[in-house]
Amino acid sequence: MTARDHAPRRRASLLLAGAVALSVSGCALLPGQASPSSSGEPVETLTPTPTDDATASSSTSPSGDPTGPKPQTPDPVALADGMRTYMDAASSVTIRGTLHDTERDMQMKIHAEGSTAGLAQQVTSDAGISRTTLELPGGGTMESIVVGWDHYLRVDQQWIDTRKPKLDSPLRKRVGEWVKVPRQQSPVEQYKPHRLLKSSFFGVGLTPEDVRRSPASTVALGDEWAYLLQLNKAGKEGGNDQQRQVWLSTDGNAALLKMTYGTYPARTTLSFGDWGSSRENWKAPAGARTLKEFGDEDL
């Protein structure tokens, strides 16, 4: 099998990494509301920006249009800061969307629980306890468990048939069995939400000036109102592939509901839900075989 054969899977893995990184990014709360963590500490209120249509009348359309008055749009910086804060505190999330591959597009569903959050996890991001499940509808499932520094995963036969790992991949011989993979080579890290925070909202990903210049508005998203924040890179780096659109809830949590990024026609769209807290008492799978070497092409 040649390097060319593996290229589509590697590209897909990178897209997936970006997708999940975005999984826990956050939103601000109204006074007195607690984040998904158990701290119960209130977060600064989002400050609305006056708009002409802020008091729009309620919609009663049976077609799924939003009901209730149209909320005022907060300042874009407040929205971005709130998004990071809220999602950083969350320890569980479900992500659905399309994984673009050179051969075909695959629908995916990721559910992450445990020590998967953002900034608070940077120091101990390789530790903690978490469980992540990645499903490709009609195309298999990969499960992963992280206990401290140990990373475990298992796949089913449909995953092997769809992903087509290299012929000598150890997973082909251990379908349905847990294996322990080297932490430095673990694909599990790709699916941790804190990766998104670090790569997409800080440093070269997005500067404070970029956020300040990013337009925000209140729009209809299905049958509910949502804040739309268009995160654009400034200057020469502001191409279409750098434009990230995020839709946030207007219920006082500003939870991330949806996001798009990338270039057309392969622009990725992801939806988010089930934000909250989760248990962290998973144990290392008994009898897992330890793999000394493991790479993207094995998965």
Automatic annotation (TrEMBL):
It comes from the Bacteria. This is Lipoprotein. Residues 1-28 form the signal peptide. Residues 29-79 are annotated as: Disordered. Residues 47-67 have a biased composition (Low complexity). Keywords: Signal.
